Amino acid sequence: MKVAYLGPEGTVSEESARYFFAGVDCEFIPFRFMADVIRATSDGRADYGVVPIENTIDGSVNAHVDLLVNAADQPIQAEWIYPSVQNLIGYANSDKSDAGLSHIRRVVSIPVATAQCRSFITGMLDPEVEFEPVNSTAEGVRLVKERGDRTIAAIGTRLAAERYGLDLLAENITDHDNNYTRFTLIGKEPLPVRDGAVYKTTILITLPEDYPGALHQVLSAFAWRRINLSRIESRPTKKKLGTYYFYTDIVMSLDNVLLRSALEEISAIGAQVRILGSYPSYGYDGESY
Ligand SMILES: O=C(O)C(=O)C[C@]1(C(=O)O)C=C[C@@H](O)C=C1
C-alpha cells in the first residue's frame, strides 16, 4: 500500500502516517507540496494521501481544507488525531560560555508550526529574529543542514533532527502541551475499521441564497433530529466575494437513515450538499476525537 505525505522525510505528517499505519505493510512517499499529495492520490501514484486539516493551537489549516474541497477527487476514508511536538532544531552554540539561543537570527518553518510556538519565540529568541516560511517543518530542518549556518534554526520534529543530523536546541516548544493535529486520509478504498472508531461524515453545505435565518433553517434539520455536529467552518467559495460554503463534520455515519433524512430536508430547502466522506474517526490514545 502506498501512502503519500507532505515531505521531505521527517515531517509531522510522516510521523503521524507511520503511527496510523503501524504494523501495516506500507510504502511512505514524500511529496514537496500538499497539492502533489492530493494529485498523487488521484492519479494512482499513491493509494492514500495524508492531509492535516486542524490544529489545537492554530485552528483550521485553511490551505489544506481548501485543497480537500477543491482539488481532491477521492473521499475521506479515515481521520485520526496525532500530537504535534515541535522542537527548535539547528546547530548548538559552540561558544560554551553562552548556553542560550542568542546566536539564532532566523527561524525557518511552515507558518502553521511557527504559529504553534509563538510564546516560545517571543519569550526565548532575539526580538529581532527573522522568519522564513517553507513548505513543511522538515523542509526547514533540511534547509538549515544544507546551509550549514549556525545562526539559523528550524521548528520541527525530533525525527527530522535525527534524519538530518542536527541538534535539538530546545524541546517541546509549542505554546500548549496538548498540541494535537487532526489528520484526514483520502483514498479510493475504505480501510478495515479498528476498535475505538467513532463514525463521522463530512459535508459541504452551500446555502440557497442569503436571507435571514437561512443557516438556522439548515442547522435545525440536524438539531431536531439530535444529530451532533462537531465542526462547522465557513470558507469562501472563491467565486464571488461574500459567498461561503460551510465545511461541516457530523458525528454520524451516512448509513444512518436519520442523517440521510436530514440531508434530504436540507436539499429540499434549496441548499447544496456535497459529501466529502463518511469514515471512522480515531482519537489519540483513547483521548477524545
Ligand atoms: O510540516 C509538517 O511537518 C507537516 O506535516 C504539516 C503540518 C500542517 O501543515 O498542519 C502538520 C502538522 C504540524 O503541526 C505542522 C505542519
TrEMBL record:
The record's listing under Pfam families reads: ACT (PF01842), PDT (PF00800)
Q: Which residues form the Prephenate dehydratase domain?
A: 2-188
Name the domain of life. Answer: Bacteria
Q: Which CDD domains match?
A: ACT_CM-PDT, PBP2_Sa-PDT_like
Query: What InterPro entries does the database record attribute to this sequence?
Result: ACT-like_dom_sf (IPR045865), ACT_dom (IPR002912), Chor_mutase/pphenate_deHydtase (IPR008242), Preph_deHydtase (IPR001086), Preph_deHydtase_CS (IPR018528)
Record field: catalytic activity = prephenate + H(+) = 3-phenylpyruvate + CO2 + H2O
Query: Do you know which PROSITE patterns this protein is assigned to?
Result: ACT, PREPHENATE_DEHYDR_2, PREPHENATE_DEHYDR_3
Q: What keyword terms does UniProt attach to this protein? A: Amino-acid biosynthesis, Aromatic amino acid biosynthesis, Lyase, Phenylalanine biosynthesis
Output the PANTHER family linked to this UniProt entry. Answer: PREPHENATE DEHYDRATASE P PROTEIN (PTHR21022), PREPHENATE DEHYDRATASE-RELATED (PTHR21022:SF19)
Q: What is this protein called?
A: Prephenate dehydratase
Q: What is the lineage of its organism?
A: Bacteria, Bacillati, Bacillota, Bacilli, Bacillales
